TrEMBL record:
SUPFAM superfamilies per UniProt: Adenine nucleotide alpha hydrolases-like
Organism: Aegilops tauschii subsp. strangulata (Goatgrass)
Gene3D superfamilies: HUPs
Biased composition (Low complexity): 1-10
Domain UspA stretches: 43-100
Protein name in UniProt: UspA domain-containing protein
A Pfam family this chain is assigned to: Usp
Length: 154
């Protein structure tokens, strides 16, 4: 489980990417501390998956890149992943409105909606990709290439 890294460009901030962590910083000590915490969390999740289903091979990969979504897709391609599961959070309505992601503002301003990491990975991943979001009322919303926001009661 060695982190892959792309060549850093001049003095721009770097982003540390995993399935649940994205940190932008210039301070190398902060990156080292965050990387350690990231590995601890990912290894705990891997151990849980392996103890529950020992026949399923789980691999952890942390990649540093400027663009998060293409980095995740490239890592899945490099490692020959058969399934990519991504946690998904929905922004609050106020945040979507402020960022110009509200449909009415989109039509008025003529801006195209900037797709997020999960949507990009679902469309471009070389394997099956699932975006999973927990619902407050119970269950989960699962998105894939074939189904969008499929409700799963688990």
């Amino acid at each position: 489980m060695t982190p892959s890294s792309s060549s850093p460009s001049s003095n721009r901030p770097r982003q540390m990417v995993s399935d649940r962590t994205a940190i932008t910083t210039d301070d190398s000590s902060c990156v080292k501390m965050s990387r350690t915490r990231c590995y601890e969390n990912l290894n705990a999740m891997r151990s849980l998956c392996e103890s529950t289903r020992p026949e399923v091979k789980v691999e952890v990969c942390v990649t540093e890149a400027e663009e998060r979504a293409p980095a995740v897709v490239d890592a899945a391609r490099r490692h020959g992943a058969s399934l990519l599961v991504l946690g998904q959070r929905r922004r609050a309505a106020t945040a979507r409105w402020i960022l110009g992601l509200w449909p009415a503002a989109e039509r008025r301003c003529g801006r195209r909606w900037q797709r997020g990491l999960v949507e990009y990975c679902i469309e471009h991943a070389p394997c099956e990709a699932l975006g999973v979001r927990r619902r407050n009322s119970g269950g989960y919303l699962v998105s894939s290439r074939r189904h969008r926001d499929f409700w799963l009661l688990a």
